[in-house]
Amino acid sequence: MTTKSAAAAARATVYGYPRQGSNRELKKATEGYWKGRGTAEDLRGTAARLRRATWEQLSEAGIDEVPTGHFSLYDHVLDTSVMVGAIPDRHRAAVAASALDGYFAMARGTQDAAPLEMTKWFDTNYHYLVPELGPDTSFAADPAKQLAELKEAIALGLTARPVLLGPVSYLLLAKPAPGVAGDFPPLALLERLLPVYAEVLADLRAAGARWVQLDEPALVQDRSPSELAAAARAYGELGALGDRPKILVASYFDRLGPALPVLAKTPVDGLALDFTGRAAANLGDLAAAGGLPGKRLVAGVVDGRNVWINDLERSLATLATLLGLADGVDVAASCSLLHVPLDTSAERDLDPQIARWLSFARQKVTEVVTLARGLNGDSVAIGVQLAANRADLASRTASPLTRDPAVRARVEAVTGADARRSRPYPERAAAQRTRLSLPPLPTTTIGSFPQTTELRTARADLRAGHIGTEAYEERVRTEIRDVIAFQEAAGIDVLVHGEPERNDMVQYFAEQLTGYLATQSGWVQSYGTRYVRPPILAGDVSRPGPMTVRWTRYAQSLTDRPVKAMLTGPVTMLAWSFVRDDQPRADTARQVALALRDEVDDLEAAGSVVIQVDEPALRETLPLRTADHAGYLAWATEAFRLTTGGARPDTQIHTHMCYAEFGDVLDAIDDLDADVISLEAARSHMQVAVELAGAHYPREVGPGVYDIHAPRVPGAAEVAALLRKGLEAIPAERLWVNPDCGLKTRGWPEVRASLANVVAAAREVRAQLPAARS
Question: Is the distance from CB of 128 to CB of 659 less than 8 angstroms?
Fold first, then answer.
């Protein structure tokens, strides 16, 4: 190993860390504030304690430069909108009255003002709040949050580096504000925005920042020459400032490609690059570009998005190659550790050997520090870690958990016919309409209903052994009876059982399939105060027995109306898990699809007429580079069709997607060959309906008319207006009426009121149709 001089010693750093705390203290404090159980001071105090604990843990672990600014009460993109003064007009009064309440109003909406649109953060399962910008947008610097957090870290005696979303990515992630022409490019505001960033940089320098990191993940996507020119202009101007800290431009999730030489030529002081997974190509691109002479390189060699241990020797080899390509090389995770759970040591139920295959945020920090020490030539000190790492990698490779010959033989036997329905859609649609006899604009919901306090308590009591399975299942049956009765009384046409037995739409199935591991404390932020525990897909997948049939059959026994059976699709089962990295994802997807296909067969045999296979992750998992789209979409759509291909022609197959940009996958949505698709549309004002119509989508569609991620109750007139807008794109014989997403996170009072308005609106618009459903 090359020995580095003390002056050029590699530093260890990270770009961000899980925000919630070891017991999700931030979630509890925030929701307590919303419900009036805590004050603003209580919430801010909890946040400050969590930040301090994080920084102290990072420092004690050996991180040389801690990040600030990454912490957020809701979303870091929303924090950026506040920092640059991009407040929508409808929220300005709320922000003026209370900065904190106005902040949450932008995130969650109020009864009088809709929230900002929410969508996926690149190809992760994190959601960000989309900035709304227009030609009249004016920016004004408000770096109070960023300055306060920097000062907190410095007061602890730490070397701190503020981390901000960069101006180019901020604008590329934005959308035209409501009422602004859809062809308005927010990037046109760059010259107006750069002086605000210059002011923020000067303020951070005055507060003690020596380096500031500006994140530009949007540059790993395909970018036009004009967009690359905008990046060159932005960092040319910011780099030329006299009153600024040193600037580190970071990008991650994929290779920078053409943006790499553009950024390398600007007068910024360093680049932070991802060298894991798809982004490993950055190594060759960096060498081809002549390296970064005179600049700092922060090398993201520890995967910040998945939970498998790092191959330390391979990463050290990569780092050694990078040494000659920059003035200094430091070590980091590939991206913020926001996307992984906090600590494997909290997982008491995992087999100790399997736990050694895993690396959560704290373990990744240790890997980063170990690699920095190795890069500095301290091979003796890390010898024990390297030996242990080799043994753990070998243990995983040799484990019988990872390979099941029967599963692999079944996958090998799959043919193209297995992934196609037996009849074309027009024939299926006619058979389904005869069998179901639904009215025009049929109403339904997406699947889940509110999980009551009684249900959550029963689930906790079952885990703790305070009640038995029989008592718990009676509680579940009670919830199903209540949900079915409510839907019948409300006048909903196609019912659901409400999913009271499910802890999570992926975890529930993962716990019943082979090859998956469940965690007890592996919480990861999805959005705001919504945290999920993604299961870990470690080995070959099969279904030992039926997973949903019993509860679906029970719900159907309570009503004469059709009850949708609810499954989570194979792509989402991968995307919302920490998926194995030792075989192609296409192979894993086929294994999951075949397990789900068995469930579809059993549901049909039990009498299910409507089966919904949710694929909300189809779009979010789309690779960031266009060249990679076709290969991904081929196996993703095949996996869905493999799940549903054996269904009878008169069984109606639904699917659902939410909170993503669907324009890029319209052909793939068609290729799923689902009979009905429901999609998020309320916050985007039916944009997806227009896109589907433009693509001549031939099947039935349920664009959402009720935004379930906000606590407000939409009025019947508001829902009716959305429906009429949907009818401008989708004919009545193919239009369904439903919420954007499941109702699990909402409370019963708002659900009752909202669904009553949805049904009333559907009836009103239905009565005005010129002809009945064909």
Answer: no
pTM summary value: 0.89
User: Which residues, listed in sequence order, are joined to residue 702 by a DSSP beta bridge?
Assistant: 678
772, pLDDT greater than 50: no
Cα(651)–Cα(661) distance, integer angstroms: 29
How far is Cα 290 from Cα 242, in angstroms, rounded to an integer? 27
Residue count of the chain = 774
Catalytic, 709? Answer: yes
- Helix (H) / strand (E) element for 195: namely helix 190-206
Backbone angles phi, psi at 127, to 5 degrees: -110, 140
User: Which is catalytic among the residues 70, 654, 656, 709?
Assistant: 709
Tens digit of each residue's pLDDT (9 = 90 or more) over 351-372: 998 999 999 999 999 999 999 9
Phi, psi of 596 (to 5 degrees): -70, -35
pLDDT value at 2 more than 60: no
59, 109, 597, 691 from 685: Cα distances, Å: 46, 15, 35, 12
Q: How far is residue 352 from each of residues 303, 400, 538, 565, 643, measured CA to CA in Å?
A: 22, 16, 14, 37, 34
Mean pLDDT of the chain: 95
Pair 50, 71: CB distance under 8 Å? yes
pLDDT 10s digits, 642-684: 999 999 999 999 999 986 677 788 999 999 999 999 998 888 7
Tokens of 202: 């000067």
Nearest-angstrom CA–CA distance, 164 and 83: 10
Listed in sequence order, the residues at least 6 apart from 305 whose beta carbon sits closer than 8 Å to its beta carbon are: 124, 253, 277, 334, 335, 339, 340
- What average pLDDT does this structure show over 497-523? 94
Contacts of 185 (CB under 8 A, 6+ apart): none
